[in-house]
Amino acid sequence: MSAGAAPQGSLPAGTQLYTDPNSQVVRWVAANPGDSRQPIISRRIASQPQAIWFSNYSPSTITSDVRTVTSAAAAAGQVPVLAVYEIPNRDCGGASAGGAPDLASYDTWVRNFAAGLGSGQSIIILEPDSIALTTCLSAQQQSDRFASLSRAGASIHAAAPNAKVYLDGGHSAWNSASEQANRLRSAGILTNADGLFTNVSNFNTTANEVNFAKNVLSALGNPANLHAVVDTSRNGNGPAGGGEWCDPSGRALGTYPTTNTGDPAIDAFLWVKPPGEADGCAGTAGTFLPDQAYALASAAASDPTTPPTTPPTTPPTTPPTTPPTTPPTTPPTTPPTTPPTTPPTTPPTTPPAGAGCAISYKIASAWTDGFTADVTVRNTGTSAVNGWSLAWTFPGNQKITNAWNAKATQSGAAVTATDLGYNAAVPAGGSTSFGFQGTGSGAAPTAFTLNGAACTVS
Predict the structure, then answer these.
(1) pLDDT digit string, tens, across residues 62-98
(2) What is the mean pLDDT of the chain?
(3) CATH code of 232's domain
(4) Ranges for the CBM2 domain (predicted)?
(5) What percent of the chain clears pLDDT 70, i.e. is strictly above it?
(6) Is 129 a catalytic residue?
(7) 144 is in which domain, residue-wise?
(8) Of the listed 129, 247, 267, 419, which one is catalytic?
């Protein structure tokens, strides 16, 4: 391992997570440019990497469906988050009922899923609720399910050594840490997984989930190769009163997705449950609801320009030992059937006629060895821009770790930021904005080109 590399089993800080250009929210944003809810949904939700769910039993296409995602992510230099949701009798017949017809079929399906992962990095959220929610299973059925989950982890690692597999940890208001650890041990976490996930499709605070995850890891003996990830997609205001979990009102987006958690036990804060997709009460499970997305985005603490908060240092608390009377469900999301498109990374060599641009580059926040920046691109030319690529060179040691509303690639000090499709068109006199988080410090860049044309800098 090279100096400064992340410990085995963890995700390196600064890992760029994949933003799916075919997600439901991105498609809605593109189709509704005049909707008053669109700007904040675009800025705070569509710009963020979220899990892509594989929840439809399609044995003949699952390998190609997965390869479509992983190939696009690899081309973008990003790491996809894939949620596997096909275990038989999933959700115990609740709002997200379904799954493979039997465990033998599931084992085959998972092997075909794994065949599409390729050699690149990927994050696998393996079967939400499958370990925490077993009330509908007999002791033998539970044992058989756990054995199948262990085989699934082994199959994924065998086919894709760079995949990180996380098993169902439930959440902090469900099973006790010791009980969840016992179940995870039976499901092969010590041999065939890289850790556990918590809070998927739920609303518990990040502080409680981090403490709970550490309690589970402790109950497992704190193996050096096991860590946790936490779903923070809708926990900005914590849980609803009375433990309501099915499309409750008054919730907010939580910490934006990042692997920069500041805690060696926590690999990432992820958006596993896509914000705005129904749990099954406000709409059919997995359906994108713009009103719900707008409410979550409006209640968020800020735009995605604030560096991630440091995980809590308060002592862990012991979660309750009795699960809620109605366990949470995870809505299915249909995997993409067409390959995501990748925006161009090389600007045209000849600027278009009537081209011109003005750039506003501002440091939004800064801390030791890190910062966030807001960039506004104004089209000062006489013609509309349809597809943009902004290039600049950092004057210091800055490195981009995450971007929103643009795809950012970097080679040395040279950076290229390109549109994400839904924000490709910039009319004459119009503007578009994006932001990014970076490491390092130093002076701001002073020269930019847009599609090969020099820009003025304000």
Answers:
(1) 999 999 999 999 999 999 999 999 999 998 877 788 8
(2) 85
(3) 3.20.20.40
(4) 350-458
(5) 84
(6) yes
(7) 24-298
(8) 129
